[in-house]
Write a structure and sequence with these properties.
homodimer; 320 residues; alpha/beta; Rossmann fold; 7-stranded parallel sheet; 5-stranded parallel sheet; 12 strands; 15% strand; globular
């Protein structure tokens, strides 16, 4: 390298945990904007010299923004999902893309299992019951439901889904999955679509990518197939579920409960859910522990270093 | 048997799930009283003909009560712990005692893991954050802590403790234990006392019996050894912890958090805990799902049948 590449770190205001690490290795410019227009204003003269972007928020990176970054060679996303990135435009412009790889997988899997036990055993509802003094006043708390032995269908058996499956095995859960294609090396039973997965399980866990094929993959039909004791856990993306229908299904008792870390219009959450005891709500926090933030910082740096030394990326996103 | 044994079922008012099953097999009398005096009044003339008691609540069975039940041969407790039973007096009178054996073990273990993830990943606090509209108002939620890789010390490696250990293994947790004695068949590291267990772990899980040796086994010294990021999970009995000291330790930050299903003076819970976000409270519900209630009903019946056919009990309590 004749000259150090100039790296833009686009991040939420308080997410400064990566700044020092990256700055020790590259000339870094940090900004925080929620739309591409103000970002471009604040970049002003720098835009043309940026050769890498680390996108830590979910800022949309579209053709227009890319057209203002003519030197951009590498885009590092700190999320696993890349639905906010125009990948075809990146491909057209020869921009390489990296994502979070497995940096968050353990934490998301831990949280998915935590949400599942929390819904079945009604842990947050129990906590409210005790704190509000109802235990003393009304006695016995309404029973929860058993996890051991439940049939759990995983929608998207990638790194996170596999970690969830592995964690649920010693609970005596029977695991099956749906994925873009059946995996030959996996012995869990495969269902070819979301409806059959739901119909044959007590719980479905959503941890697949959000794209045109998976948007609203959990619709009314899937929820009816899951049935009145069925539970949905979503640690993927809000858009995987038809949220409006899900609210109806929860209120009407078409399904039994839900543990939701993600929503269609975050941080907006349908208010009808706030009064329900069979629902556990989490503010898109499944991936976030100090441990995983350290992982992602190291991974972003490793991807930057690899790329600018002409080595293969650690966690590349396939552009096809 | 020349005559069917007369069985007294002592239970909380709403816990009628065993009545039908037992009545189909034995002449059954059901009562619900929280002290032995009113129980004896309501039994009146029947007391002398009772040959078995199924004790579903935590009614204290002491020498005085036993002296009014001269025909009693078998006492079936539906709890694992028998600290409410005068076992020496049972032994002296030749009364056989059974407990819940492993009927609740899976559910208690599931709940212990659920409480642990709930405390570390702050699931009930996150749920409150979303429901109160704070996500929209204040943005990002305070990060939780990683479970994967945590060192977990189990205090009491019986059936429940072993199930908890097995469940935590695929989370990458490093398991160790303290028990009345080291178990030769177990490869987990053994610590000879609660202080060294706490000093060498990030989490301690309490699931041992409550008796004179274990009362307040978790005292101030143990909590100081566990340290400011340490977490206590209690699914055993409230009396295992010096609750007054625990409240201080939580408020002062001597320990990091706690997930508590049991308390010293249930249903009383120290009100200082109600305002803490690093605590998850549960109303002694770890063992209770419809599945485990079915288990315990079947087990109580099996113990009664075995005893009155001169067969070995399924889940005997050793009287020594």
């Amino acid at each position: 390298m004749s000259e150090s590449p100039f790296v833009l770190v686009q991040r939420p205001p308080t997410f400064d945990f990566m700044d020092e690490l990256l700055s020790r290795n590259f000339p870094v410019l940090t900004t925080h904007h929620t739309s591409s227009a103000p970002l471009l204003v604040s970049l002003s003269g720098h835009a043309s010299s940026i050769s890498a972007v680390v996108n830590m928020g979910m800022l949309k990176i579209d053709a227009d923004l890319l057209s203002h970054l003519p030197s951009l060679q590498l885009l590092v996303c700190t999320s696993v999902g890349t639905e906010h990135i125009d990948l075809s435009e990146c491909k057209r412009r020869g921009i390489t893309v990296a994502n979070a790889g497995e940096a968050f997988s353990e934490d998301v899997a831990d949280c998915a299992v935590g949400l599942l036990i929390s819904v079945l055993r009604r842990i947050p509802a129990a906590d409210r019951y005790v704190r509000s003094g109802k235990w003393v006043k009304f006695g016995e708390f309404q029973l929860g439901f058993k996890l051991s032995g439940k049939r759990v269908g995983i929608l998207g058996l990638g790194s996170i889904g596999s970690f969830i499956a592995k964690r649920l095995e010693p609970f005596g859960c029977i695991i099956s999955y749906n994925s873009t294609s059946q995996k030959q090396s996996i012995t869990y039973r495969y269902y070819p679509d979301a409806v059959s997965l739901a119909a044959n399980n007590d719980v479905i866990v959503l941890c697949c990518d959000l794209n045109d094929q998976t948007r609203h993959i959990v619709n009314r039909e899937v929820m009816e197939s899951l049935g009145k004791n069925g539970v949905i856990i979503n640690v993927g993306r809000g858009g995987l579920i038809d949220e409006k229908e899900m609210v109806k299904c929860l209120v009407e008792g078409v399904i039994g409960g839900a543990g939701l870390d993600v929503f269609e219009k975050e941080p907006g959450v349908p208010e009808e859910l706030f009064g329900l005891d069979n629902v556990v709500l989490s503010p898109h926090a499944a991936m976030a522990t100090p441990g995983s933030l350290d992982n992602i910082a190291q991974l972003a740096l490793a991807n930057l270093k690899a790329f600018f030394s002409n080595q293969p990326l650690i966690s590349p996103v396939r552009l096809d």
